[in-house]
Amino acid sequence: MDFYMWTRRTLQEGSLCAQHCLNNLLQGEYFSPVELSSIAHQLDEEERMRMAEGGLTSEDYRTFLQQPSGNMDDSGFFSIQVISNALKVWGLELILFNSPEYQRLRVDPINEKSFICNYKEHWFTVRKLGKQWFNLNSLLTGPELISDTYLALFLAQLQQEGYSIFVVKGDLPECEADQLLQMIRVQQMHRPKLIGEELAQLKEQRVLKTDLEQVLEGNDGTGALDEDEEDLQRALALSRQEIDIEDEEADLRRAIQLSMQGSSRNISQDVPQTSGPNLTFEELRRRREAYFEKRQQQQQQQADPPGQASQPRERPTTSSGALGSDPGDSMSEEDMLQAAVTMSLETVTNNLKTEAKK
């Protein structure tokens, strides 16, 4: 299905939001900047003739001639009068949404067909296509789906932010998107972003990466890092790391998830798996111990100077006992989770220290 504008245009040209607003409303390239400028000039001339009725030498008339046009400017902005006159060609009329006359009608917004919204010099359309509502804002990377239950709240929020909202009355021209959405309904998994938002995020990430690299270069690894520097260094290390998920790591995560689900769960129940035979909680516990022991041995080999015999290290313990205690020892799920998290944090810390020494 093809919504007009977003599959053909990625950036709004200048400040021609009024043109995009009208074309998004009508779902086609019906108005060009030249045509809207012609309407604006016509309105300016009508206003000049009315002011001239008071006398060509009057102070009000001379002041009017010195003022810029109120219907358009060099940036591409067009007034509500220009938009209203452009829609009259299609037999469409604009009514102020919060006017007393319209509010007395007590019409539910979902029973309307479209709205035009304005804040300062920005215009955009909210239109019903088929049986669903869409925010067709030209500053977004695509149309935003609005549910029927959220429409009234969405319009109320715009009013609180200072937007003027106009109800479009009349029959809109037929369009392909409206015909298709009469038969099907669409679902939107991700809300469209503002144009330039992704670029701004990438820029912020580059700035953060540069700051982190400067922190690492300024640290010779001989002194203790303060807490903020450690956080920055850890973030940079994680951003550079390519994580390869192994089966034993997946088993460890499943065991931790089981612990977080509450102590009321039967520990003898099989844990869901991604591959291999069913594993009981006790088997996962043993595999977790073996995994931590292997990681400790690798860290010991990296930390000890060549030729120096490796000294055995004590494994961290919890309030209920050692993580590597005999499987028959009593150990709560909360203690095992805490021990697993402690070991994981120590692994990250040791890796960071190793990187700092290189």
TrEMBL record:
The active site annotation covers: 17, 122, 137
Q: What is its main location?
A: membrane
How is this protein positioned relative to the membrane?
Peripheral membrane protein
Reactions listed under catalytic activity = Thiol-dependent hydrolysis of ester, thioester, amide, peptide and isopeptide bonds formed by the C-terminal Gly of ubiquitin (a 76-residue protein attached to proteins as an intracellular targeting signal)
| Domain Josephin stretches | 4-183
Q: Provide GO CC annotations from the record.
A: lysosomal membrane; nuclear matrix
The record's keywords, sorted A to Z, are: Hydrolase, Nucleus, Protease, Repeat, Thiol protease, Transcription, Transcription regulation, Ubl conjugation pathway
Swiss-Prot/TrEMBL GO biological process terms: protein deubiquitination; proteolysis
Q: Does the keyword Transcription apply?
A: yes
Q: Which GO-annotated molecular functions does the record name?
A: cysteine-type deubiquitinase activity
Task: List localization entries.
Answer: Lysosome membrane; Nucleus matrix
Report the top EC class in one word.
hydrolase
EC numbers, comma separated: 3.4.19.12
Q: Which domain of life is it from?
A: Eukaryota
Query: Which InterPro entries does UniProt cross-reference here?
Result: Ataxin-3, Josephin, UIM_dom
- Region annotation Disordered: where it falls in the sequence: 292-343
| TM annotation in the entry | none
Assembly information from the UniProt record: Interacts with STUB1/CHIP (when monoubiquitinated). Interacts with DNA repair proteins RAD23A and RAD23B. Interacts with BECN1 (via its poly-Gln domain). Interacts with PRKN, UBR2, VCP and tubulin.
Note the PANTHER family from the entry.
Answer: ATAXIN-3-RELATED
Protein purpose: Deubiquitinating enzyme involved in protein homeostasis maintenance, transcription, cytoskeleton regulation, myogenesis and degradation of misfolded chaperone substrates. Binds long polyubiquitin chains and trims them, while it has weak or no activity against chains of 4 or less ubiquitins. Involved in degradation of misfolded chaperone substrates via its interaction with STUB1/CHIP: recruited to monoubiquitinated STUB1/CHIP, and restricts the length of ubiquitin chain attached to STUB1/CHIP substrates and preventing further chain extension.
- By what name is this protein known? Ataxin-3
Q: Which organism is it from?
A: Octodon degus
